[in-house]
Amino acid sequence: MRKPDGKIVLLGDMNVGKTSLLQRYMERRFPDTVSTVGGAFYLKQWRSYNISIWDTAGREQFHGLGSMYCRGAAAVILTYDVNHAQSLLELENRFLGLTDTASADCLFAVVGNKVDLSEEAPGEGGQGGGRDPGQVGGGSGGSKQVQLEDAMAFYKKILKYKMLDEKDVPAAEQMCFETSAKTGKNVDLLFETVFDMVVPVILRQRAQAPPQTVDIASAPPPARTRSGCCS
Ligand SMILES: Nc1nc2c(ncn2[C@@H]2O[C@H](COP(=O)(O)OP(=O)(O)OP(=O)(O)O)[C@@H](O)[C@H]2O)c(=O)[nH]1
Ligand SMILES: [Mg+2]
How does it sit in the membrane (predicted)? Predict the structure, then answer.
C-alpha cells in the first residue's frame, strides 16, 4: 500500500455523526453505527493523491488519543450536532486543543450535522429525510439549536487560537457546513471542498519534508582521509 500523501481527521463529541458522515461519503449509505472505539481510517484517492481520512471516537475515555490522530494532519473537520448546542461548545472546550499536533498550515472545517432533524417542512432536504420524532432538542417542529452564524463565530475563534490571520486562510463562509449524513445533504460538498483545499497543503508538506533520496550527482565528493592502506 502506498503511504498516504495527506491526512484529514474528524473530531467531535460522541453521537454527532462523524462515522455516519464518513460512511455516507465513502459507501454512499446510512447504516446503523456503533459508537467508535479508538479510531479507524479510510483511504481516498483524490486526483493523484492518496488521502487518509481518520474517524475518531468522541467518547471521553478515548479523548487522549485525539492529539495522536491529529499529528501532522493537513485538515481537521470539527463536527457538532445542530440540535445540540453543547456539542459545539465541546469543540471549543475539549477538541480544539487536540489539534495542536496538526500541521502548522492545517485547514479547519466546522460541520453541523443532523440538519434533517430540524428541517422546517417534512420532506425538505430530499431523499425522504424528514424529521425524526423524539430526537434530541425536544421541540415539536424544528429543534435546531445552533445556527450557521454560531459555527462561523467558532471558526473565527479557531483562527484566533491558532494565531492565524483571516486574510491567509479560507473564509468562514467556505469552511462552515450544515450536513445530514441521513439524507446526504452537503456531504459530498463538505468532503470534496476539503480535499480540493488540502492538495496545496500536501504539496507544501512535501516541499518541506526532508528528501527521501540522495542525489549522487550533486553530493559533495567524500573527504580524503590519510588513513587506510593506500595513504
Ligand atoms: N437523523 C440523523 N441521525 C444521524 C445523522 N448522523 C448520524 N445520525 C445518528 O446519530 C447516531 C450517532 O452517529 P455516529 O455516526 O455513530 O456518531 P459518532 O460521532 O461517530 O459517535 P462516536 O463514534 O461515539 O464518537 C446514530 O444513531 C446515527 O444513525 C444525521 O445526519 N441525521
Ligand atoms: Mg463514530
Answer: Lipid-anchor
Helix (H, G, I), strand (E, B) or coil at 15: coil
Give the span between the Cα atoms of 69 and 199, in whole angstroms: 19
Ligand nearest to the CA of 34: 1
Strands 107-113 and 75-81: parallel
Query: From the alpha carbon of 135, which atom of ligand 1 is closest?
Result: 1
Which set of grid coordinates corresponds to residue 168?
491567509
**Predicted ipTM of the assembly:** 0.99
Distance 34 CA to ligand 1 centre (A): 9
Are 63 and 96 within 8 A, CB to CB? Answer: no
Q: Which of 43, 11, 46 is nearest to 198 (CA)?
A: 46
Spacing, Cα 156 to ligand 2 middle (Å): 26
Tell me the angle at which helices 187-208 and 18-27 cross, rounded to the nearest 10 degrees.
Answer: 90
Kindly list the protein residues whose Cβ atom lies closer than 6 A to any atom of ligand 1: 12, 14-20, 33, 35-36, 57-59, 113-114, 116-117, 132, 180-182
Mutate to test the pocket of ligand 1, among 9, 11, 20 (most ligand atoms within 8 A of CB): 20
Q: Residue 82 and residue 17: Cα distance in Å, rounded?
A: 11
